[in-house]
Amino acid sequence: GENVEQHPSTLSVQEGDSAVIKCTYSDSASNYFPWYKQELGKGPQLIIDIRSNVGEKKDQRIAVTLNKTAKHFSLHITETQPEDSAVYFCAASIVYGNEKLTFGTGTRLTIIP
Amino acid sequence: NAGVTQTPKFQVLKTGQSMTLQCAQDMNHEYMSWYRQDPGMGLRLIHYSVGAGITDQGEVPNGYNVSRSTTEDFPLRLLSAAPSQTSVYFCASSLSRGLVYEQYFGPGTRLTVT
């Protein structure tokens, strides 16, 4: 089955700086890679996703890049703000397959004012 | 839309007790899933359903049962609770239509088994 590894487990950055979280996956058939943000006491919330036919996707301060050959994808947050502090999860799945998401172990991001 | 709702928010059980975690969605999503979240282990899939009447096992199904009699509801049953089932449980529903695929999570149920 799919295995997703996520690094780092914790990350602290100064407000205004950029943050990068990286994930690798094992199943070359995976074609959908979402990122979730989880705030304290809440369920994960989808913030951005990318499909395997696209190398990069941006949404304001958030971007995701995908390298299919190396089987890794990354989340980039620019101009970080205090409200970006949360736990971030990457995931991988095969759309039009079994629709099962395999999650990474999460990154706790802390923005230092 | 209320989205994905879960009840209860908190629950304490004694070893051997049974209970049902409720999950409902009002978005007419075909796919629904149950995950458990443990410290340092991310979210792990317990069971999932691709439509009413169809369920399948995920990564960690032992000790849990599910059924899907309607599109809206997907309850998770613990037949005989064990301390190892202490966790936060999340229900999710998925929209998969054409090129769109998004998974929405409920607020979670924090379960403690003593």
Structure description:
The complex is a heterodimer of chains A (113) and B (114). In chain A, strands 2, 4, 5, 9, 10 and 11 form a six-stranded mixed sheet that branches. Chain A has no helices and eleven strands. With 113 residues, chain A is mainly β. Chain A has strands at 4-7, 10-14, 19-25, 32-38, 45-51, 56-59, 62-67, 72-77, 86-92, 102-103, 107-112. Chain B has strands spanning 4-7, 10-13, 19-25, 31-37, 43-51, 54-57, 64-66, 76-78, 87-97, 100-105, 109-113. Chain B is globular. Classes of the chains: A mainly beta (113), B mainly beta (114). At the A-B interface, strand 4, strand 5 and strand 10 of A face strand 4, strand 5, strand 9 and strand 10 of B.
Strand content of chain A: over 45%
DSSP strand count of chain A:
11
- Provide the low-confidence segments of chain A as ranges: none
Q: What spatial form of chain B do the alpha-carbon principal axes imply?
A: globular
User: What string gives the helices and strands of chain A in order?
Assistant: EEEEEEEEEEE
Helix share, percent of chain A = under 10%
Mean pLDDT of chain B: 92
